Amino acid sequence: MLTPVPDAIYLIELCSGECRRWRYRGPDARSQIWWRDLETGREFNETSVMYSWSIVGKEDPVPGR
Questions:
Q1: What DSSP element (H or E) covers 11?
Q2: H or E segment and range at residue 9
Q3: β 53-58/9-14 pair status
Q4: Which of 27, 30, 37, 52 could tie 15 with a disulfide, CB 3.0–4.6 Å?
């Protein structure tokens, strides 16, 4: 099992088969886990996601960024 690293970007596969890029924001003071969808710019916590998804892998950072 992959343990996400804060501020890292992950390729996510939704139950529909669609792939998205999400940035892991980490837990807040209430231990809710937060993510940011890089396409829409929306931030959300894991408990608000209404569909199944899984982490496919971590995106490697681009050199010089």
A1: strand 9-14
A2: strand 9-14
A3: antiparallel
A4: 52
Amino acid type, 8:
A
Tell me how far the alpha carbon of residue 2 is from its chain's centroid. 12
The string over 18-53, giving b where at least 16 C-beta atoms fall within 10 Å of a residue's C-beta and e elsewhere, is eebebbbbeeeeeeeebbbeeeeeeebeeeeeeeeb
Query: pTM of this prediction?
Result: 0.86
Q: For residues 22 and 63, is the Cβ–Cβ distance under 8 A?
A: no
* 29-57 pLDDT per residue, tens: 999 999 999 999 999 999 998 889 999 99
The pLDDT assigned to 19 comes to 96
pLDDT given for residue 50 in this prediction: 86
